[in-house]
Amino acid sequence: MPDPKANASILVFAANPDPGLEEVVMRLFPRTPVHQQPFELAEWLALSQTNDLLGLIVDAESLRISDLRAIEAGLSAHPAQPWCILLVGDRGLVGYESICQVPKLRLLPLPWTPAGLQQAVQSLPSATAPPSATDDSFLEGLVETLRDPLTSISGYLQLLENQNEEQLQGLIHPALEATEQIGTQLEFLQLATADIYPHIAPIDLKNFCAELADLALEQNLVLDLDCSPKLFVDADIRFLKAAVQCAILLLQRFGPGGPIQLRSWQEKEAILLSCSMAPPQNPVAHPLAPPVYLQQLFLRLAEKAPAQVHVEHLEGGIPLRLELRW
Fold first, then answer.
1. In contact, 262 and 209? CB cutoff 8 Å
2. SS3 state at 281
3. How many contiguous H segments (helices) and E segments (strands) does the chain have?
4. Which residues make Cβ contacts (< 8 Å) with residue 194, sequence separation at least 6?
5. Rounded to whole angstroms, how far apart are CA atoms 293 and 138?
6. Residue ranges, the chain, pLDDT below 70
7. Closest by Cα among 314, 309, 269, 264 to 289
8. Measuring CA to CA, which residue among 168, 167, 313, 326 is closest to residue 243?
9. To 10 degrees, the CA torsion angle through 310, 311, 312, 316?
10. What is the per-residue burial (b if ≥16 Cβ within 10 Å, else e) of 51-86?
């Protein structure tokens, strides 16, 4: 990715906040401040005369043509020539076509995806690949996630050597659960990393959530369902199912505690599916942040579904809400 400059920042201009977009940008530029805000002409005129701007991400569909022309003029005259990723929707470039002449400009069609944004960043001058799901933190988290069930299985097998037949059932059941947990994790990992051609089809979210609740019940986990009827999204059910199951596992193991709610609803023109826990009344005494691997796995699976993502945390990195949006 472009080399960060000291004290430089990245601005995201959008009429409506998109926390998922901001989170992905922060992940791609972990050492650079990222600020998402509505476009203000006076502030932009001041910024366009300083060296404190590394790059821009502009939701062109939500801004006025006059604002986009002002952005174009500022970028063309900027002394440090910051890069710009322009999110372009159905309106296209009508009325401000000359922005294509701006140096270091990349166009990204809406709806944006984490993969598309990463590719746009990688294509910028002096770009190097952002951390991927195969970096050290991802692999370290994977090892730690699988180590616990493997250790459990080893312990149960050692205990089985000296147990009579009546005591075997109490040890076999948890050993089988640990084995199933490993299998599920490896299945998620294969889907997230394999080059699998997606099969997009309409999915009824209410039926989908009901099926997930039945699967969770088989593992003695009760999900609180709140799903609106007749909501359909176009997605690959393999990736969508794995993403939501990964979100459930993330909350189950590292959330603040309490029931897990699986909810689907429509908000204006968007359809949302969220997996969440209620915020605790008191701060968590000893917060245990999830391994980087598990949240990255959720993000990769959601990206392949495909869906936009929004994740909310409590202090200490504790996951509270994982949301998919179409």
1. yes
2. coil
3. 9, 12
4. none
5. 4
6. 1-7, 49-51, 125-198, 284-293, 316
7. 314
8. 326
9. -150
10. eebbbbbbbbbbbeeebbebbbbbbeebeeebbbbb
Q: Which residues have CB under 8 Å from 125's CB, separation 6+? A: 2, 83, 104
pTM: 0.49
Q: Which of 275, 181, 171, 276 is nearest to 219 (CA)?
A: 181
CB 93 within 8 A of CB 71: no
Please tell me the distance from the alpha carbon of residue 89 to that of residue 114, in angstroms, as a whole number: 16
Contact 13/318 with Cβ under 8 angstroms? Answer: no
- Tokens coding 33: 């401040």
Residue 37 has a CB neighbour count (10 Å cut-off) of 11
Residue for token pair 């409506």: 16
pLDDT of residue 261: 94
Question: In this predicted structure, what is the pLDDT of residue 273?
Answer: 94
Give the closest residue to 298 by CA, choosing from 252, 254, 242. Answer: 242
- Residues forming a β-bridge with 105: 84
Cα–Cα nearest to 23, from 302, 305, 304: 302
CA distances 317 to 62, 140, 253, 306, 308, Å, are 31, 17, 13, 25, 20
* pLDDT at site 18: 85
Alpha carbon distance 86, 107 (integer Å): 5
132 burial level (CB within 10 Å; 0-12, 13-18, 19+): exposed
The Cα 14–Cα 60 span in angstroms is 8
Which has the closest alpha carbon to 247: 193, 287, 301, 200? 301
- Order the strands of the 319-325 sheet from edge to edge: 223-227, 260-267, 270-276, 319-325, 308-313
Q: Write down the pLDDT at residue 226.
A: 92
**The length of the chain, given as a count of residues:** 326
Q: With beta carbons less than 8 A apart as the criterion, state whether 104 and 82 touch.
A: yes
